[in-house]
Structure formats: C-alpha cells, structure tokens
What we know:
The complex is a heterodimer of chains A (153) and B (216).
Chain A: H1 2-26, E1 30-36, E2 43-49, H2 55-58, E3 60-61, H3 66-74, E4 78-80, H4 95-99, E5 104-112, E6 115-124, H5 132-152
Antiparallel strand pairs in A: 1-2, 1-6, 2-3, 4-5, 5-6
Helix pairs in contact in A: 1-5
Chain B: H1 4-50, H2 54-81, H3 85-88, H4 91-106, E1 109-115, H5 123-144, E2 148-155, E3 159-166, H6 173-179, H7 181-192, E4 196-202, E5 206-214
Parallel strand pairs in B: 1-2
Antiparallel strand pairs in B: 2-3, 3-5, 4-5
Helix pairs in contact in B: 1-2, 4-5, 5-7, 6-7
Amino acid sequence: MEFNVCNKSRKDQPFKQACEQVLEELNCDFVGLALQNSNGPDVSWHYAAGNRNDKYKRITVRYGKGIAGKVISTGRPMGIEDFPNNILGKALEYPIMLAENLSYAFAVPIQFKGVLKGVLLVGNRTKQPISESDQHTILDAAKRLEKELNSSI
Amino acid sequence: MNTQPLKKNISSYIIQTHEEEIKRIAMELHEGVGQSLYSLFTGMQLIEKAIEQPAMKSYAGDMNQLLEKTIQEIRLLAVELHPPTLTTLGLISAMKSYIKLYTSTYGIEVEVENLGVESQISDRDSITLFRVCQEALVNIARYADTMKASIIFKWKKSRLLIMIKDSGKGFEVETAMNKSSGLAAMSERMHLIGGKCTIFSKIDKGTSIEISLPLY
C-alpha cells in the first residue's frame, strides 16, 4: 500500500511541476489539469497550481459539460472572458470558474495516444485577459504535458 | 376587492403546472426515449457480435459506446429535471442523492443531519421543499465562496424545520431580496404551501436559511 502511495506521488510529480511551471511562466492566477476518468467518460480535475482551495479535487464534470467536458468533446481550445458575463449557458455550468473565482480562462485539449484525454486550463481572477501570446504558451505547455502523459502511462 | 387569494391561487397553479410538466418530460425521457435507446443498444450488441469483418465490428463497437453514453446522458438529464426518488423514497433520500451530485459538481461538501422520524408529505409539498433546498444550495455554489455547508432536517410532531447553513461571504438580505428573484421565489414557493422561508445573512459571517412547514 505504502509503495503504491509513493509510486503515485512520484507519478504525479511531473504534472504538478508542469502546472506550477505554466503558472510561473505566464504569471497567471490558476493552472489546472483535468483528465478523463479511466472507467467512464466523466472528466475530473487532478492537478492544480495557484488554487485557493481543494474544491477542484472533488469536481467531476460529464463529457460535454463544463469547460473541461466541452474541450474534450469538441477537441478545440475554449476561452472565457469576463465570467460570469457573456457566457454560453448558466454560470453554474462552469464549476471550476466558480470554485476558483476566475474571471478569465483559456483551456486547451491534451491527447493521449492520439485520443483526447485531458484539458489544461489557465485562468485569472483579476480583469486580466489571456493574451494571444499567452495562448501560444499554453498550447506549448499542453504539448509538453502530452509527452509526459504518453511516456508515464 | 381583495385580490390576494386569487393571486396566490394563480401563482400556485402556475408553479404546480410547471412542475407537472417537468415531471412529465423527465418521465418521458426516462421511460420512453431511454427505454427505446436501450432496446436499440441491446440489438446493436447482438449485431456487433454477429459481424465478422473487423472494420465493421469496430465501427459497430463505436456506435454501441455512443449509444451507451447517450442512454446515460438521458438518464442523468431525467434525474436532474425531476428526482425520481422523491415520490418513491421521500425527501431525505432525494436530497441525499442530490447532495452527492452537488458535491461532485461544485466540490462543496455538505453535511446532512436528519433528526426525528420522516413523515409522509404530499407530492406538492415535497417537490416545493426539494426545489427551495436546491435553490439554497445552488446559491451557495454560485455566491458563497465556501468549501462546506450543512443541512439539518428536524421532524417534529406538527412541523418540519430545515436549516441550511454556510460560513461563506454572506450578503445584505434586504438588498439581495430586491435584486435576486431566486431568493424571493424561495419565500414565495414556501408561502404557497403554507410554509415559511427566512433568510439570515451578514457579510463575511455566512448565511443561514430556515424553512418550516406545518405537518398535518
């Protein structure tokens, strides 16, 4: 049992570090990594940096719902500006934005062996939009994470 | 001429019709569309087994997975619209089931306490209580900025008391009541079934909502 715990935290390390690296690189408020569950289509937030609480650990969204579920189902990046204003649907459909009190977010898909399996989200709590160059940095970070994922599992 | 009783009857009628329609759609999704899709799914599984050509077998497998996902979506949508356990197992069971979903959606832990013996209440009363509690919890997720909340059910001989508390941001009750139709609707819904909904809140001190309903 102890071995498994140690093994798991060792496996987690690169993902945690990757989130912290993006947080530092972009000087943003929050970075989160969501992965699709191995036993079903639901998507859960597994790793975060800059988080204000541990709510993200309990949040699971259905495939196609929430930011993570939408990004995985469409396979395309998604941006949110000035939350909760001008959003598609209700604010309650964006639990991670509510949990972390984010105003701006940009989320990109992450592939595992050619299949969409995760989402990297970067967010700001202030009225600081995520610039186009930041979006490129997030896409690069997602590519790095894809490599980590593919080599670790 | 006093038009208040007439207004109360109209509001009550509108809410009840709305709830009945939601229940009908939920039932239709679960029993109608859901069942038809399930029949399709079992048929497709048979077809998949019978196919020998690998490419077609894999295609049929993908279609089966999509069907399974759709069936699950339909079931969840039906439950979200109207909790089926409310009629069969009662308010406490329906609330516990909703809270489980609530925690996994918003990450907020809710402590549930049930004191006394649950009494039988009418469908109309139980759906109203469920909706008011649901609105209170949704408001916590939306505005309170907290990680924990609690809900206590006290079943007394002649009265049911429900207390929903959080230690979040809090708000000015009077200003919020004038601004938010959700808070006003909670009080109005309870008033229509002969109950009461009282909201206490202070900025940075959290919020407490007390719901009471006479039991006959």
